[in-house]
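chain below, 444 aa
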Amino acid sequence: MIQQFGDLFEASDLRTKVLYTLGALAIYRVGAAIPTPGINGDALKAIFDAQRGGLLSFLNIFSGGAMARFSIFSLGVMPYINASIIMSLLQGAHVFPQLDRLEREGELGRRKLNSYTRYLTLALAAFQAFGFTIAISKMPTPGGNLPVIPNPTVSFYMLTVLTLTAGTMFIMWLGEQVTEVGVGNGVSLIIFAGIVVRIPSATMNLIRLIQAEEIGLVQALLLLAVLLVILILVVWVETAQRKIPVQYAKRVVGRKMYGGAQSYLPLKVDQSGVIAVIFAVSLLAVPMTVVQFAPNTAWAQKLMGFLNGSNWVYQLVYAALIVFFCYFYNSVSINPEDLADNMKKSGGFIPGYRPGESTARYIEWVLERITLGGALFVAAIAVLPDWMRIRFNVPFFFGGTALLIVVGVALDTMGQLEAQLIMRHYEGFLKKGRLRQRWFNVGS
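prediction:
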């Protein structure tokens, strides 16, 4: 493993990619620590310390703690993710024919669609920045301390909205640069960095709780053991595949015979990875922004109570959104008819099924069933923190959404680094992982 990490810095172009990615993440972390002017940091910290669980804690974790500091990157990449969701839904529902035409135009059409997504991100960022600023200004502080915003003037609101919007647009640009120039998915790595950076502080908090005898050593060890088991299960599901056998017919071209080989069509159990979880959390953040424009009304109070994460209805909605986005992502990324058509053109067929429509139906049948298992597992892991907190009063953020994102992004980035190393004739990270892959294969 050490040799493989050394190989990353031997090739100059690969070394540039890795260093560029690390530098971009470092810039993001510096910006996440810069507070917005005019904020009472102590009062804001007391508010977030008093709120355990719920959507606000989720958003703070996704922003890498920037929201608890009300930094210039408080909104994180959530507006960009929401804009991507809206554009994907519009394309999938075929609401605007122009978007369908752009999707079929190749690289030029993709650039125009990305431009539309950026414009929508700008509008959503401004809207969410205004709603979040109003929410912070009206949040009651525990113990009746000084307000979070000592002097809420019009100029303060304008400057804050502009600062938060500019911060979101900069993060969006930074993530796109990492995707194009660096290694891995830039937006996912930004969320990944925000979660990983909180691991040392969470570990120290657990140690302090043990020293203060608020939780016993046996209970802490048991929780860590459960966390390890969940980590193994997450890695297993994220790498699990359903391999559909594909047979290629023999054909004679000139004096040579081609085909006759057997291959596999690999379908991942969790094809969407962390995308479904990120989409679900981003979508749930929208009503929190809306209620800030009328926080004292009865419906707003009920909605905020619903979003605190301590009731089973919220957990059910959250899990249902994850399942929906798992299926939605698969419907956008995998087309069984195209797979069957390409297979037919190359002379391949699935034993027992006729090429064409019959093969497409079988692939869709398999895909729907493995997606259901993967989606239910991801949803169960995502709602686990709230359930553990309610039933067992777990005193720290336990696995769940953060664990899914960390594992999913880490596996995706390692896979891309593996491909880069193999392309340059180096040994990959997973050279000795063939036995592990056989264990993780589901079906054959």
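Residues 287 and 303 are 8 Å apart (CA to CA). The domain at 1-200 is CATH 1.10.3370.10 (Preprotein translocase SecY subunit).
thats it, cya
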